[in-house]
TrEMBL record:
Domain N-acetyltransferase: 3-143
Keyword Methyltransferase attributed: no
Protein name, as recorded: GNAT family N-acetyltransferase
Origin species: Enterococcus aquimarinus
Membrane-traversing stretches: none
Entry keywords, A to Z: Transferase
SUPFAM superfamilies documented for this protein: Acyl-CoA N-acyltransferases (Nat)
Length: 154
């Protein structure tokens, strides 16, 4: 994680879209959470290499990581974990009691990352992606159907 700079900012930048769409292929869905999110960026030598969006929720006691992506060339170097740990610390400062994240049952890498960082599966939303996305999604050779909710107490 040499030469990485992490910075919170209140809004998105045009350069964010590549990473946003890598984590969530629907511009329509992303648009639903952009305005209610704080952006945590990771930069190396000025280049955006990672991005996490932390949304405010209807409950003042809960934060939600709604998007997390790291450039493929920068993955497996701890950047995702750093982004998560900074989001957890930020959530504590805001007074959140728990942090939540949702991901597909087929998202093996993100599932590993979130669990490695202390999140636990707390519920399943069956057929979420079939109902909420306009296109059929495939990941890791599987049809994306169900969404897992993972939480962590702060």
């Amino acid at each position: 994680m040499k030469n990485l700079i992490f910075n919170w900012r209140p809004e998105g930048l045009p350069e964010d879209w590549e990473l946003l769409l890598a984590a969530d292929p629907s511009q329509r869905i992303i648009a639903t959470y952009l305005e209610k999110s704080a952006f945590l960026e990771a930069r190396r030598e000025g280049e955006l290499v990672g991005l996490l969006l932390l949304a405010t929720t209807s409950s003042a006691e809960r934060g939600e990581i709604v998007n997390l992506s790291v450039r493929p060339s920068e993955q497996n170097q701890g950047i995702g974990s750093q982004l998560i740990q900074q989001a957890l610390a930020y959530g504590k400062r805001l007074g959140y009691r728990r942090m939540e994240v949702a991901t597909a049952t087929t998202s093996f890498g993100p599932l590993y990352l979130y669990q490695k960082n202390g999140f636990r599966v707390t519920s399943v939303e069956q057929d979420y992606y079939l109902k909420c996305y306009d296109e059929v999604l495939m990941e890791n050779g599987l049809l994306v159907k169900d969404r897992l909710i993972l939480t962590q107490s702060l």
